[in-house]
Amino acid sequence: KREIEEFDWEDVKNFIYTPTYLTRRRAEGSTNWESVNVPFGFDIMPSALPLSLVELQMAMAGSKTASGKIYLYYIYDLVKCIKENADYDYIIIDTPPALGALTTCAMMAAEAIIVPSNLDIMSFRGIQSFKESADYIQETAKAQGIEHRGILGILLSLYSERRSVDKALEEYVHEFYPTPTFQTQIRESSDAKRANANGMLFAQINKKAKADFDKLVDEIEFALKDPKAWEKKTQELWEKIKAEREGEVNE
Q1: CB 59 within 8 A of CB 37
Q2: pTM greater than 0.90
């Protein structure tokens, strides 16, 4: 039986922040405009540069801390503490693009995993090794009585409808990876960097990006609520792509 890390909510909540963005709006009861900070509709627990040292310390210490706590469940216990004390619809854990100790901990803490991937062969090759790790995490979680969906789906990003190679690579993913792929793709845009530089969301300054993310959220909710229907839907998509491709070849 694994040891459990007990977190103090009073300590944890001090690291949770509600981010804001600067906008202009008409002052109440006045014709004058003023600059105000408006809160986003979510909270964050931001990372920091010293976090990069944590993974190094974890690797040097092995699978356990000095106190004997198993690292694999550390973020799981942290998330459990947040769930018990705060009312969030969803908790999203963003991880670095590397299968290190922190990413493994985050995978254990997640009820389901979304795999973002650029549209290039090297990124696709990494999906298979990642899937093997995700399958191991899922089996380990179930052995501890923890509900875990494994990989929910692959999300293609930096997508451009103007590049025929992107369409070909999308078809490649559907054909050669048994893992479901979201129909939504996050399109490539310079606005993403502009939003990041100005402390804004990509969707705030790009209407097409907002439509992409709205559609993605709908897909994720559907996949979480009805797994069998989700898998059937993604399979039907591949069958449609395959039929269209065969039709083009015959012509």
Answers
A1: no
A2: no
